[in-house]
Design goal:
With 223 residues, the chain is of the alpha+beta class. The protein has six helices and eight strands. 31% of the residues lie in helices and 32% in strands.
Length: 223
Amino acid sequence: MTITKNLQQHPDAPGELLIWTSVDPAYEQDFNQWYDQEHMQERAAIKGFRWSRRYHSDTCARPYLALYQTDTLRVFTSEPYRLAFTKQTQWSERNFTRMRDTSRRVNAVTPLAGFGTGAAVALICLQTLEQAQAAIELAQPLIQAMDGVLAVRALCPDPVLSTPLPSEDVATRKLEPFLVIETTSLLSAETAKQWIADKLALPSDRSHCFKLLWDLQSSELER
Protein backbone atom coordinates (compact mmCIF):
# COMPACT_ATOMS: atom_id res chain seq x y z
CA MET A 1 0.00 0.00 0.00
CA THR A 2 1.15 3.56 -0.68
CA ILE A 3 1.59 6.28 1.88
CA THR A 4 -1.38 8.25 0.54
CA LYS A 5 -3.64 5.28 1.25
CA ASN A 6 -2.49 5.13 4.85
CA LEU A 7 -2.16 8.77 5.90
CA GLN A 8 -5.25 10.94 6.10
CA GLN A 9 -5.10 13.86 3.68
CA HIS A 10 -8.80 14.54 3.07
CA PRO A 11 -10.22 17.90 4.28
CA ASP A 12 -12.79 16.02 6.37
CA ALA A 13 -10.03 14.24 8.31
CA PRO A 14 -9.38 15.46 11.87
CA GLY A 15 -6.90 18.32 11.90
CA GLU A 16 -4.03 19.11 14.24
CA LEU A 17 -2.03 22.31 14.38
CA LEU A 18 1.56 21.87 15.55
CA ILE A 19 3.64 24.82 16.76
CA TRP A 20 7.20 23.85 17.72
CA THR A 21 9.50 26.65 18.76
CA SER A 22 12.17 28.17 20.94
CA VAL A 23 11.90 31.68 22.32
CA ASP A 24 14.18 34.61 23.08
CA PRO A 25 15.35 33.81 26.66
CA ALA A 26 14.91 37.45 27.69
CA TYR A 27 11.16 37.10 27.19
CA GLU A 28 10.57 33.47 28.16
CA GLN A 29 8.52 34.31 31.27
CA ASP A 30 6.22 36.59 29.30
CA PHE A 31 5.98 33.99 26.54
CA ASN A 32 4.75 31.37 29.01
CA GLN A 33 2.31 33.80 30.62
CA TRP A 34 0.91 34.67 27.19
CA TYR A 35 0.37 31.04 26.28
CA ASP A 36 -1.14 30.10 29.62
CA GLN A 37 -3.27 33.19 30.24
CA GLU A 38 -4.44 34.04 26.72
CA HIS A 39 -3.37 32.00 23.72
CA MET A 40 -4.45 28.51 24.79
CA GLN A 41 -7.94 29.73 25.62
CA GLU A 42 -8.20 31.77 22.43
CA ARG A 43 -7.47 28.80 20.24
CA ALA A 44 -9.55 26.29 22.20
CA ALA A 45 -12.54 28.64 21.95
CA ILE A 46 -12.55 28.67 18.12
CA LYS A 47 -15.51 26.78 16.70
CA GLY A 48 -14.37 23.33 15.58
CA PHE A 49 -11.39 23.08 17.96
CA ARG A 50 -11.39 20.08 20.31
CA TRP A 51 -8.47 20.86 22.62
CA SER A 52 -5.24 22.79 23.15
CA ARG A 53 -2.11 21.24 24.74
CA ARG A 54 1.28 22.61 25.74
CA TYR A 55 4.50 20.62 26.15
CA HIS A 56 8.07 21.34 27.21
CA SER A 57 11.41 19.56 26.78
CA ASP A 58 14.49 20.00 28.94
CA THR A 59 16.77 18.56 26.24
CA CYS A 60 15.49 19.78 22.86
CA ALA A 61 16.92 22.95 21.31
CA ARG A 62 13.33 23.89 20.45
CA PRO A 63 11.81 23.21 23.87
CA TYR A 64 8.20 24.35 23.39
CA LEU A 65 5.55 22.31 21.60
CA ALA A 66 1.88 23.23 21.26
CA LEU A 67 -0.74 20.96 19.70
CA TYR A 68 -4.33 21.87 18.84
CA GLN A 69 -6.78 19.32 17.46
CA THR A 70 -9.84 20.20 15.37
CA ASP A 71 -12.89 18.33 14.12
CA THR A 72 -11.63 18.50 10.53
CA LEU A 73 -8.99 20.21 8.42
CA ARG A 74 -11.75 22.46 7.10
CA VAL A 75 -11.73 24.33 10.42
CA PHE A 76 -8.49 26.01 9.28
CA THR A 77 -10.32 27.58 6.31
CA SER A 78 -13.38 28.59 8.34
CA GLU A 79 -14.38 32.18 9.07
CA PRO A 80 -13.94 31.85 12.87
CA TYR A 81 -10.37 30.64 12.39
CA ARG A 82 -9.61 33.28 9.77
CA LEU A 83 -10.72 35.99 12.17
CA ALA A 84 -8.61 34.57 15.00
CA PHE A 85 -5.58 34.17 12.75
CA THR A 86 -5.79 37.62 11.14
CA LYS A 87 -6.80 39.63 14.23
CA GLN A 88 -4.08 38.79 16.74
CA THR A 89 -3.83 40.62 20.05
CA GLN A 90 -0.90 42.93 20.74
CA TRP A 91 0.38 40.41 23.27
CA SER A 92 0.33 37.74 20.56
CA GLU A 93 2.07 39.96 18.05
CA ARG A 94 4.86 40.70 20.53
CA ASN A 95 5.44 37.05 21.31
CA PHE A 96 5.39 35.98 17.67
CA THR A 97 8.40 38.24 17.14
CA ARG A 98 10.20 36.60 20.08
CA MET A 99 9.79 33.03 18.81
CA ARG A 100 12.82 31.41 17.22
CA ASP A 101 13.22 28.60 14.65
CA THR A 102 9.47 27.97 14.65
CA SER A 103 7.70 25.20 12.78
CA ARG A 104 4.00 25.75 12.12
CA ARG A 105 2.25 22.78 10.54
CA VAL A 106 -1.44 22.19 9.93
CA ASN A 107 -1.81 18.43 9.74
CA ALA A 108 -4.35 15.79 8.85
CA VAL A 109 -4.50 13.24 11.67
CA THR A 110 -4.40 9.47 11.23
CA PRO A 111 -5.03 7.52 14.47
CA LEU A 112 -2.86 4.41 14.27
CA ALA A 113 -3.21 2.51 17.55
CA GLY A 114 -4.40 2.85 21.14
CA PHE A 115 -6.22 5.74 22.79
CA GLY A 116 -5.86 8.34 25.51
CA THR A 117 -3.70 11.32 26.47
CA GLY A 118 -0.41 10.75 28.25
CA ALA A 119 1.79 12.73 30.60
CA ALA A 120 4.40 12.96 27.81
CA VAL A 121 4.79 12.51 24.08
CA ALA A 122 7.53 11.37 21.76
CA LEU A 123 7.62 13.37 18.53
CA ILE A 124 9.21 11.54 15.61
CA CYS A 125 10.12 13.57 12.52
CA LEU A 126 9.96 11.30 9.48
CA GLN A 127 12.26 11.98 6.55
CA THR A 128 10.77 10.00 3.67
CA LEU A 129 7.52 8.44 2.55
CA GLU A 130 9.13 5.04 3.07
CA GLN A 131 9.86 5.90 6.70
CA ALA A 132 6.30 7.11 7.19
CA GLN A 133 4.95 3.86 5.78
CA ALA A 134 7.23 1.83 8.05
CA ALA A 135 6.20 3.95 11.06
CA ILE A 136 2.52 3.22 10.39
CA GLU A 137 3.23 -0.49 10.43
CA LEU A 138 5.17 -0.20 13.72
CA ALA A 139 2.41 1.56 15.69
CA GLN A 140 0.51 -1.49 16.89
CA PRO A 141 3.64 -3.57 17.61
CA LEU A 142 5.00 -0.65 19.66
CA ILE A 143 1.95 -0.58 21.94
CA GLN A 144 2.01 -4.34 22.32
CA ALA A 145 5.73 -4.47 23.06
CA MET A 146 6.09 -1.63 25.53
CA ASP A 147 4.51 -0.65 28.84
CA GLY A 148 3.50 2.98 29.20
CA VAL A 149 2.67 3.57 25.53
CA LEU A 150 -0.96 4.64 25.24
CA ALA A 151 -1.60 5.76 21.68
CA VAL A 152 0.10 6.53 18.38
CA ARG A 153 -1.05 8.88 15.63
CA ALA A 154 0.45 10.20 12.41
CA LEU A 155 0.35 13.82 11.31
CA CYS A 156 0.56 14.70 7.61
CA PRO A 157 1.18 18.43 6.90
CA ASP A 158 -1.08 20.22 4.46
CA PRO A 159 1.17 22.34 2.19
CA VAL A 160 -1.42 25.08 1.64
CA LEU A 161 -2.64 25.44 5.23
CA SER A 162 0.82 25.24 6.86
CA THR A 163 1.55 28.95 6.52
CA PRO A 164 4.96 29.68 8.09
CA LEU A 165 5.41 32.02 11.04
CA PRO A 166 8.01 34.82 10.66
CA SER A 167 10.85 32.98 12.43
CA GLU A 168 10.85 29.99 10.08
CA ASP A 169 13.38 29.96 7.25
CA VAL A 170 11.24 29.27 4.19
CA ALA A 171 14.31 28.49 2.10
CA THR A 172 15.07 25.37 4.16
CA ARG A 173 11.49 24.53 5.09
CA LYS A 174 10.37 20.92 4.64
CA LEU A 175 6.85 19.56 5.12
CA GLU A 176 7.46 16.13 6.59
CA PRO A 177 5.11 13.74 8.41
CA PHE A 178 5.27 13.29 12.18
CA LEU A 179 4.58 10.38 14.49
CA VAL A 180 3.16 11.33 17.91
CA ILE A 181 3.40 8.73 20.68
CA GLU A 182 1.34 9.32 23.84
CA THR A 183 2.94 7.82 26.95
CA THR A 184 2.42 7.72 30.71
CA SER A 185 5.84 9.24 31.53
CA LEU A 186 8.91 10.87 30.04
CA LEU A 187 10.79 7.61 30.63
CA SER A 188 8.23 5.71 28.56
CA ALA A 189 8.43 8.37 25.86
CA GLU A 190 12.22 8.10 25.75
CA THR A 191 12.03 4.31 25.50
CA ALA A 192 9.39 4.41 22.76
CA LYS A 193 11.32 7.10 20.88
CA GLN A 194 14.47 5.00 20.90
CA TRP A 195 12.56 1.86 19.84
CA ILE A 196 11.14 3.65 16.80
CA ALA A 197 14.45 5.38 16.01
CA ASP A 198 16.28 2.05 16.04
CA LYS A 199 13.67 0.37 13.84
CA LEU A 200 13.75 3.19 11.29
CA ALA A 201 17.49 3.96 11.58
CA LEU A 202 16.73 7.61 12.36
CA PRO A 203 19.43 10.13 13.27
CA SER A 204 19.24 11.28 16.89
CA ASP A 205 18.02 14.76 15.95
CA ARG A 206 14.84 13.36 14.35
CA SER A 207 13.09 12.34 17.57
CA HIS A 208 12.35 14.25 20.77
CA CYS A 209 10.38 13.88 24.00
CA PHE A 210 8.19 16.45 25.72
CA LYS A 211 6.35 16.47 29.03
CA LEU A 212 2.76 17.70 29.09
CA LEU A 213 2.42 21.11 30.75
CA TRP A 214 -1.35 21.28 30.51
CA ASP A 215 -4.40 20.33 28.51
CA LEU A 216 -7.44 22.50 27.81
CA GLN A 217 -10.55 20.82 26.42
CA SER A 218 -12.70 23.13 24.31
CA SER A 219 -15.80 21.77 26.04
CA GLU A 220 -14.54 23.26 29.33
CA LEU A 221 -14.97 26.76 27.90
CA GLU A 222 -18.64 26.08 27.15
CA ARG A 223 -19.63 25.58 30.80
